[in-house]
From TrEMBL:
Keywords: DNA-binding, Transcription, Transcription regulation. GO terms for molecular function: DNA binding; DNA-binding transcription factor activity. It comes from Alicycliphilus denitrificans (strain DSM 14773 / CIP 107495 / K601). Residues 16-83 form the HTH gntR-type domain. Transmembrane segments: none annotated. InterPro entries: GntR_C, TF_FadR/GntR_C, Tscrpt_reg_HTH_GntR, WH-like_DNA-bd_sf, WH_DNA-bd_sf. Coiled coil: none annotated. This is Transcriptional regulator, GntR family. SMART domains: FCD (SM00895), HTH_GNTR (SM00345).
Length: 224
């Protein structure tokens, strides 16, 4: 399964560097737990698995080390970082600030096509949630993130938030049996409608609603 092969249909994307493609491919493997926390990271195996060259894979892995998704340990090499339950609420708290900023920027700066696409992605999430289709829900979730980030035109905020999104997505996959898809879909729809209508306050409220949902989900896991 890959979130990154399903590009939004109405938004044209520039040609991407091989290292960025590799980063996305590895991110999917980590966030969906195909590469388990604590498991070794072997460059040659990833290159073969993704069909990408060793050089872009190596560059992508170095980026992941720098943001903490992968750890470099003496005598053990590269390992997928573990999910830290104690740290996860801090991840959500930090992500909340960035998501509100991005939502405000998107509500103000998005093109008409981007506003329409963001709504389309949220609607796909709602339909997938109603049918209990987790993979389709998460693909649409990623598509919404991609367009939202493009629409915000705030590269600094996006660069900071993406690793946090991956951590939240990985947490979700690890504990998905505790999540409520329809509640998440409602929060995404509130965010999407705020952006689509250019209402910065509504977009920010939608971002807060989404983070509240993720925080409740995390606390249920931590309190068990």
């Amino acid at each position: 399964m890959s979130f990154h092969t399903d590009k939004p249909s109405t938004i044209s994307a520039p040609k991407r560097r091989a290292a960025d493609v590799a980063y996305d491919a590895i991110e999917v493997l980590i966030s969906t737990l195909e590469m388990q926390p604590g498991s070794p990271v072997v460059e040659a195996e990833i290159a073969e698995r993704t069909g990408l060259g060793r050089t872009p894979v190596r560059e992508a892995l170095l980026r992941m080390v720098s943001i903490g998704l992968i750890e470099q340990q003496p005598r053990r090499g590269l390992l997928v970082s573990n999910i830290d339950l104690a740290d996860h609420l801090d991840v959500i708290q930090t992500r909340r600030v960035l998501e509100c900023l991005i939502a405000t920027c998107s509500a103000r700066r998005a093109t008409a096509a981007q506003r329409q696409e963001i709504l389309r992605c949220a609607q796909k999430m709602r339909l997938a949630a109603e049918r209990g289709l987790l993979d389709e829900y998460m693909r649409a979730d990623h598509e919404l993130d991609v367009v939202n980030h493009q629409a915000s035109r705030n590269h600094s905020a996006v660069k900071c938030v993406v690793p946090l999104i991956v951590q939240c997505r990985r947490f979700w996959y690890a504990y998905q049996h505790e999540g409520e898809l329809t509640e998440g879909a409602r929060a995404h729809m509130a965010l999407a409608e705020g952006i689509a209508t250019g209402d910065e306050a509504a977009a920010t409220a939608g971002a807060h609603q989404l983070m509240d949902y993720l925080e409740r989900f995390a606390r249920r896991i931590i309190d068990q």
